[in-house]
Amino acid sequence: MLYLLALACSPPPAERIFAGGAIYTQDPDRPLVDSVAITAGRIVALGNRVEVLRHLGPLTDVVDLEGGALFPGFIDTHNHLAWSGAERLGLDLAEATSLEETLDQISGWATAHPDAPWIVGGGWDPAVIGAADRLALDTIVPQQAVFLTSYDGHSAWVNSLALNLAGVSAASPVPRGGRIELGSDGAPSGVLREDAATLFDPFLPDFDNRTADRGLYDALRLAGSYGITTVMDPAVERWTLAAYRRAERRRRLTVRVRALVEMDPDQGPEQVDDIQRLAAEYDSEMIQVVGGKLYLDGVIESGTAALLDPELGGPGGELLFEDARLAELLSALNQADLVSHAHSIGDGAVRQYLDQLEVALTPADRRIRPPIAAHLQLIHPDDAPRFAGLGVYASFSPLWAWPDEAIIDLADPRLGEARADRHYPIGSVADAGGSVVVGSDWSVTSMNPWPAIEVGVRRADPDSDGGLELSAAEAVDLDTLLAGYTRVAAEALGLAGEVGVIAVGAQADLVLLEEDPYNLEPEELSEVQVHATWLGGRLVWQSRPVRRP
Description:
Elements: H1 2-9, E1 16-24, E2 32-39, E3 42-47, H2 49-52, E4 61-64, E5 69-72, E6 74-76, H3 81-87, E7 91-92, H4 99-112, E8 118-124, H5 126-129, H6 134-140, E9 145-150, E10 155-158, H7 160-166, E11 179-182, E12 188-193, H8 209-225, E13 228-233, H9 238-249, E14 256-262, H10 270-281, E15 287-295, H11 323-335, E16 339-344, H12 347-360, H13 363-368, E17 372-375, H14 386-390, E18 393-396, H15 405-415, H16 426-431, E19 435-438, H17 449-458, H18 478-485, H19 487-492, E20 510-513, E21 530-535, E22 538-542
Helix pairs in contact: 3-8, 8-9, 11-12, 17-18
């Protein structure tokens, strides 16, 4: 009788139990356990082995963590997953280390694709090639139009044939914030900044479904290898959403996607209606359209960021939205139950976003639909505490916070010494109580969380044990960055308690690391490797088979 009573009181058997390593839950009330059980894609128990093994049954799959560390699946709050995956199948210049190497790659691509009317690619780095010029392209590719986006997506490099086909001249009108760079002869140099590049949109070939799918599958494999199980895609289009849906229907979508639609500063609240229609069309567990992306300015390196104080020489950037229009759109998004996510690099853009959020939304609104400000290269010291006060999530890209060529050679000469110690002030926002999350901006730079985490902790080159540091006072600790990749990121995406934590009832989105990062020195963090990744309890990536005891 006692045996039967014990059986009746036992919990139902779990489908899978994880044990044999450190399990970091990201739940402040119970941060570390040594076993967790899952059933039907969700967590049903966690704690010590005795507690969890009560859920062991004859068919339970037990996974040995082999002394590694289990975390909630990582959340990337700014990742152009589908678009970047497709773009990388084309001419990818990201690995070129000089102008000569870049031109060789372009020439080789043209030779291999002689019938392509357009050569389209990206990834060129102005810090590597110096001043881009149409004449350099004309010399190597005279018979095909060339359109190449820079690694950060804020500039385009074209040849003379492309300019002629698109009818672009020095007198062409450009969208607000865009700029056609001119050469010494007064003609376009071949470099277009920001939305001036959109003058070529009607002429560029679209990605077909096959390319979109291949690129997305490659990107998903990469995300799985880094333990990423949720992304916010900050600028979807119809074709990228369709690619996500095809992958979902084929059970090949291995990240949860929260998507944003880019908003036009020259249009009013009517564009919110279009986002609402997409939100109704894409509203599954895996894919949801949740709001609008607002490009408030450009980037410092190309002189298009909006700064509170002028640049040292050069025209500088401008705000792309008028204050009244921005407030109007923020209010319209809120009324439609949609969120806002602002690209804001310069301190002028950051201040504008904070100011207009304060105008347009009540504190209750901001709690229900958390706004996100992305990138945040410069924040005026007076504005750092406002993130906490206004409930704005700060989505930094920590991998950028070290003194590389883009900062030393391109940004600092525009900013001057007085602002050189203010790049990416993650510490200032965190110390003032602000909520820090992480966005890779892939494929601008790697989506691997661990080099980014190391730079956030060290503010130095992740490929070196020493070297220059960038405003070391802005460093943050490992806890802050891991929370920014998990629990706090889930809050920012409106998914608190659902993902980003290992807690009863949460999705079993999990990543097993080969080693415990808390046992490593700061300069070793970039070397952390992922053993396996699970999405909703389903194994979606492994470096080697997981071991069963």
